[in-house]
Amino acid sequence: MNKHILILILIFAYNNTFSQENWLVNNPNGFDFYLTTKIKNGKITGMTRENALKDIVGGFKFSLAKIATSVKYPEIVHFEAHINENSFKGKYQMIFGQLDFNGIIKNDSLIITLINKDSTISKLIGAKITDLKPIRNYKKTFNTIFELTENNIYNQKFIQSKEWFKFKKRMLKISQKINDDLELQIAFSAIVRDFPFSHYYLYQTKINDKITKTNNRFAELREKDKQTCILKIRNFSGTKLEMDSLISIIDNKKYQNLIVDLRDNPGGNHVSAFPLVEYIIDKPIIAGVFPNKNWYQKFERLPNKEEYSKFSEFTGGSLNEWFNSANQNYGSYFKVLPSKKHFKGKVYILTNKRTASTCEPIVYGLKYNNYATIIGEHTAGAMLSSNEFTIENKLTLRIPLNDYVTYSGDRIDKKGVEPNIEIESEKSLTHALSLITIGNTVYN
C-alpha cells in the first residue's frame, strides 16, 4: 500500500475516533456532580445530565432565559474544547457564568482547573465510573426538606399556600430524574428564589473541626489621612475581639471621619456587628424585633413597638445565646447599648445591591437614628434570622426561623434599605470623600 494513502487512512481514523466516559466530579467548594465527556474528531465535549435545566424550569422558561440572560446550554455544566493528546482548554459554562479552564485526562482521573474572575484557581477532580446512578434517594431527601421546613419556618401561613404545595409537587416530580447533588441544589434554588422570603438555602455541609479560628480577613482598616479612615468589612464572620481591636485603632487615632464600606458584604452574624454599632451610638437604640412562628400563629400580623414586652430582650452574646432568646415566647428584639467610648466624628456607610443580611439592620438603624449618612445603592433586602439543619450526608438546609421588623414597623426582607444619597456603587467612596472637608480642603 502506498505510504501516503496509509497516512491519510490513519489521519481519517484518528479524526473519526469516538469515546465516551462518565465521571463523578468532586468540587471542594460545592456539590459533587456527574459529568459525561465525549471525544470525537479532536474535540472534547463535557456536560452534566442532558437537558437538566429544561427539566427543572420547563422548556418555555428555558427559552426565555436563553434570550434574556447568559444561559446558553440546557445542561447545568457544559464545555467544549480541542483536545491535544490528553490535555485541553476552553470555556467552562455553568448556567449564568463562564470561566476559562484547563483540563487533563490521566489514567482514570479527570482534572479541571478553573480560572476564577479574581485570577485564583479552583480544581475539580473527577473519578471514572461505569454507572450513572443517583447519588442518594432524592425523593426521600425532598420529603425531609418539606418536613423540616414545615416544622420550623417562621411563616407558617406560607406552608398552607398554593405556592408551597406547587413547590412540593414540582420537587417530587423532579426527584425522579435528579442524579447528583449539584442538580438537587440548582432545582431547589431555581424555584425558591421567587418565594416571599429569603434565607432558604441548600448547600454542602461545612466540616466542623471544633477549633475556633480567627478571621483576620473579615475586615481591614485603611487610613486616608490623619483625619479620615476607611473600615472595609467583607463579612460579619469575625469575632468580637477582632472587631474590638479595629475599633481601638480608630479610637486611639482620634479620626474625625469614619467611612464604613459594606459594599458586597453578604452579612454573617451579630457577634462582630454589635461592637461596631455600640461604638458609633451614644444612647441605647432598639434595632428591631424578630418574631418567630409562635407570634404569627397567634396574631397573623406584624408586631408594633408597644408590644415589645411580649418578646425577649437581647443585648449581645454568643450565637447560641441568640438562638435561645429568639426561640423563646414570641421571639426576641435587639437592644444595642453604647460602649463606654464612642465615635465623635462623622460616619458614612457605603452600600450596594449586595449589601445584605446582618448589614441591613445596621444600615437602617444608623440611618433611622441619624448616626450615619448612607451612600450608594439600595441594599439587597435579605434580612431574616435563620439556622442550619443537617438533612443527611454532606447536605444542609438553612431555614428562616424569625422574621425581622424594624422599630418603626417596616420589613427589610425582599425590600432592602434606601440610602440617603443614591449613587452607583463604584462611585460611592469618591462621593463620600467629596463630602468631607478639612478646613478649606475637599477630597478629590
What is this structure, in a nutshell?
This protein has 444 residues and is an alpha+beta fold.
Annotation keywords:
444 residues, single chain, globular, 2-enoyl-CoA Hydratase, Chain A, domain 1, 6-stranded mixed β-sheet, 12 helices, Lipocalin
Helical stretch tally: 12
CATH architecture of the largest domain: Alpha-Beta Complex
End-to-end distance, in Å? 80 Å
- Portion of residues in beta strands equals 25-35%
Which structural class matches the secondary elements? alpha+beta
What would the principal axes of the Cα set say about the shape? globular
How many independent structural domains? 3
Helix content bin? 25-40%
Name the CATH superfamily classification of the largest domain. 2-enoyl-CoA Hydratase, Chain A, domain 1
Strand order of the largest sheet: 1-2-3-4-5-6-7-8
The CATH class designation of the largest domain is Alpha Beta
The CATH topology assignment of the largest domain is: 2-enoyl-CoA Hydratase, Chain A, domain 1
Radius of gyration: 26 Å
What is the overall pLDDT average?
91
Largest sheet: 8 strands, antiparallel, barrel
Poorly predicted runs: 7-15, 209-214
Number of strands: 22
